[in-house]
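Margin note from the TA: students keep mixing up input and output lines. Inputs are the sequences; the output is the structure of the whole complex. Example:
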Amino acid sequence: MKALDGEYDESALPLLLTRRGMAEWTGDAVRILDRRRLPSTVVFIECREVEDVAQAIETMTIQGAFTLSLAAGYGMALALRTALDAADARRRLRDAARRLAATRPTGLALARMIAACEAAAGSSNTPGDAIEAIVRVVDGKAAELARQALATARHALPLLADAGAILTHCFADRSLLYLLLEAKRAGRSMHVYCSETRPYLQGARLTAPAVLETGHRATVITDGMGGFLMRRGEVQAFVTAADRVCMDGTVCNKVGTYQFALAARANGVPYYVVRQSGPDRESADETHVEIEFRDGEQVLRCAGERTTVDGVDALYPAFDVTPPDLVTAIVTDRGAFAPHDVGSYAEALSPLGRASG
Amino acid sequence: MKALDGEYDESALPLLLTRRGMAEWTGDAVRILDRRRLPSTVVFIECREVEDVAQAIETMTIQGAFTLSLAAGYGMALALRTALDAADARRRLRDAARRLAATRPTGLALARMIAACEAAAGSSNTPGDAIEAIVRVVDGKAAELARQALATARHALPLLADAGAILTHCFADRSLLYLLLEAKRAGRSMHVYCSETRPYLQGARLTAPAVLETGHRATVITDGMGGFLMRRGEVQAFVTAADRVCMDGTVCNKVGTYQFALAARANGVPYYVVRQSGPDRESADETHVEIEFRDGEQVLRCAGERTTVDGVDALYPAFDVTPPDLVTAIVTDRGAFAPHDVGSYAEALSPLGRASG
């Protein structure tokens, strides 16, 4: 079976790039790979209510700005399954949109997906038609995201021509994995240092196993070690995804990114953001970014065990902000942009042959 | 009972500043607080052989450059307990020195303590006399370290006059805790952000509870969040200990320090090193620092559980190097020094009224 990207075979992809590795519509449920249990256990949950999907996002059962937007999109279809009539459907859809949008304020892919689903449903006559329309929209977006990621990877690879080893942080989603697949196709072997990304450990649990699946070497470090590596000249690039990119090139990504970006700059290491699509036109600059704070209790636990005593509190900003002057290039499906030029993405020719973003 | 510092009451100190919170000589063993089990369990181990002490250091049962040097010093006495004669004692002492020095190459307090114990034993006539001489040396050093830490804290406090909140990394040992005790005495309330310090979690397990014991607020963050806090203006200073300070002001401390120092500099936050004693005269600069690498397997575990799949490896440099231009001041028992001036420590008047360091 061809993968969503339209080129690779589904079986050649690491689990997290496959359809089942993200979210699928089963006809009456949203099936989601439970990322909390990875990598030790591959188990899927079936969400039959909007609330189930919302909680799956909030509990990080599914994560990654673009990936979770797919689950939310299919979740919109769930809202209509028991609608009594058109008026009831509108109410349910509005409630679902509100609930799902509230799960994660920092990335905008989610808000866009919800808006697209609402629009698709709005032009349908019956709840059944609306469900079909929503699923079609989300399926289309899933394929588009995969093709964008592959295109992004192809634009990024030449920038990393001399990079034998790179550092990444958190789970850089499809673009980085396609980049590694493309590097392998080109006969290259890369060494990917994955910062573990506390407290949820995306780097150790999701990224490192996926890197291995692409046939490259994965080495885990703690979130405090990237600067050490860069100062020693052990990595030739720092590469991350971005949950939000402002029009001025400001990058919002998993907390910890900013520190690595500073260390990269201090040591002459380029920082590439593989964004896969364009900047967020709604965000002129950092002042438009709302940083999501999660439950500090998660910082106080390691593998479920409390790490400190009662009376100590914790802070858990999920993201941080990296100013554009620390970013070497923002790589999109339409090519690599200098951060201050990323606003011209909209005018750039889409390699997919149509206006998107 | 008066504490080792000669001023505070032992009962007024956080556990990790007390005699029993470090290492004690029992007459035929070295009793060590097992820091691996903190903060949930307070348990002591008794080392009866040099090898036990060496392993306690290697397994991080005891940690902190100066604190573990006390255990090693008492460990030298253990070597002599079963010596047959003076020649046998010399052999055993030499073997013990070699074994203990090999446990931790980066900090020099350990090497100095071992040399001091060898010198003390060398001028003794019998193994029994030598044991007494060694214990006297180590007891004296323990008291000296406590007094130096208190003096350092008093020099550091005025530098933090406007700091309502500070960030620290790893366990900054005695000086930071005395600083907090002195701040409390002066009626101040401080907010101490403690980076958890993966993989051993010194920040969450040791520092945060000790901060609470001193009566201040402790908030744990992950090792990737310090930059976020500094960019938001949430902390007014970054404060750490140092495992080694070179004569040119280069600071070697727990890995992760360098990234925070970069973030501090980028955001106009001062970085103070509370060193408690002088620089290491053996180390002109960074080229003289050997970074200790520990077992990467520890990075791959959280609370004992593996975080990733087989085939993924890990790197565990225990320390990193912060160049002097990122350091605001190195605070010692003889006052605060600009990093490039720290070499003049030896000529500075000792507040203890004698040449030390």
